[in-house]
TrEMBL record:
InterPro entries: Sialidase (IPR011040), Sialidase_sf (IPR036278). Signal peptide: none annotated. This is Sialidase domain-containing protein. PANTHER family: BNR/ASP-BOX REPEAT FAMILY PROTEIN, BNR_ASP-BOX REPEAT FAMILY PROTEIN. Pfam families: BNR_2. It comes from Lacrimispora celerecrescens. Residues 47-347 form the Sialidase domain. SUPFAM superfamilies: Sialidases.
Length: 387
């Protein structure tokens, strides 16, 4: 597609070409909502793209619900969002999308009770629900509560492994003095396409949450996690299709106690989208909220997520750095990364301190970098600049 050169993103969903970055970008229309947060994406069988997120007054309020916008294949702008959910007594958050075997798009999300007096965090009341669309995200049916255990939380989508097993990364929130710092990660596993599920626990995972599963080889899985201590992205492995997991260990990537996203690309690399910031003095077992959610980076690993020698800032924010200057950046947070069938990478995240969802499309080569002539034209086939 030929997209107009980026002259300034607009809230009408129009897609632009960012010549400086070599990316395609847009702001997904936010609709009439004060905040937009926690996006997820899905490519439909016909090539259309869906983006969903939670929208409303603010996270945790009862008017917060799931919405979904569409980018038709070949189109130059995203559509206005339509409502997916709308329980008036619960705050509905953290959606993910999945192409179900019944031909429907499944939207999985959390639903927690509205705040009560003296209680700000109600995540311990959350259940996980599913709503389906049989027309590509235009309209949605009623909800089904799939995981009724209170405190169940999710972020990343259901993954289908090579042996046909479904695995769904969750974590369990409790109403304790330690609060979110004690939450462990678990996995919901189904061997009958979601008809029944059983839970597998990850040992030593208290405070390591938002597990994102990447299949490295047959039965060999890696899960990447956010850290409540705001120190590093953590990694755990399974060698038996998710039946058992190693205790999570820190990767070289920093984490600021904010969500990450990890995938295995068609090239075999592991790609992680994250905020490359952390608290300067993490305390073991204690949750930290440094508040620095800018910039957004994508890191590539060629050894299954042990090291990440290839990193690029895909969102630089307002560009402020320095101990007393960095808070001038707005928040760019909760990245979601996916790869479409044509090999392009697609990244969304809450932007401008949850004003809207920003969409960026690029290639692995855009992250890796390539030789360019200063005054030449880049040849994407050869990787060389030509005058």
């Amino acid at each position: 597609m030929n997209y107009p050169t980026l002259a300034g993103l607009t809230l009408d969903g129009r897609i632009y070409r960012n010549e400086e970055m070599g990316t395609v970008e847009s702001m997904v229309p936010p609709g009439p909502f004060a905040t937009c947060h926690s996006p997820a994406m899905l490519e439909l069988p016909n090539g259309d793209m869906l983006c969903c997120w939670f929208a409303g007054t603010y996270e945790g309020e009862a008017d917060v619900h799931i919405v979904c916008a569409r980018l038709p294949k070949g189109a130059q702008r995203w559509t206005e969002p339509v409502s997916v959910s709308g329980d008036p007594k619960r705050s509905e958050q953290n959606p993910s999308l999945f192409n179900g075997p019944d031909g429907a798009v499944w939207c999985m999300y959390t639903a927690q009770l509205d705040r009560i007096a003296g209680k700000d965090n109600m995540q311990f009341t959350s259940q996980i629900r599913c709503q389906k669309s049989f027309d590509g995200g235009l309209t949605w049916g009623g909800y089904e509560t799939v995981f009724q255990r209170e405190g169940s939380f999710c972020r990343q989508p259901i993954q289908i492994l090579k042996n046909g097993r479904w695995i769904f990364g969750n974590w369990l929130c409790t109403d304790s003095e330690e609060g979110l710092s004690g939450d462990p990660s678990v996995f919901q596993i189904s061997d009958d396409q979601g008809k029944s599920w059983r839970m597998v626990e990850m040992p030593g995972s208290r405070g390591r949450v938002h597990p994102t599963v990447v299949e490295l080889d047959d039965g060999h899985l890696a899960a990447f996690m956010r850290s409540r201590e705001a120190d590093n992205v953590y990694r755990s492995e399974s060698l038996d299709w998710g039946e058992t997991w190693s205790e999570p260990k820190p990767t070289p990537l920093p984490n600021n106690n904010s969500s990450i996203s990890a995938i295995r690309t068609k090239s075999g690399r592991v790609a992680v989208a994250y905020n490359p910031t952390a608290t300067p003095s993490p305390v073991p077992g204690k949750a930290a909220w440094p508040g620095l959610r800018c910039p957004v980076a994508v890191a590539l690993s060629e050894d299954g997520g042990l090291t990440f020698p290839l990193i690029r800032l895909m969102e630089r924010g307002e560009g402020y750095i320095g101990e007393e200057n960095k808070t001038n950046n707005k928040q760019y947070e909760y990245p979601y990364l996916m790869q479409s069938t044509d090999g392009r990478l697609h990244l969304t995240y809450a932007a401008y301190t949850r004003k809207c969802i920003k969409y960026v499309s690029f290639t692995e080569e855009d992250v890796i970098g390539a030789k360019r002539e200063f005054d030449g034209v880049y040849n994407p086939t050869s990787g060389e600049g030509t005058k």
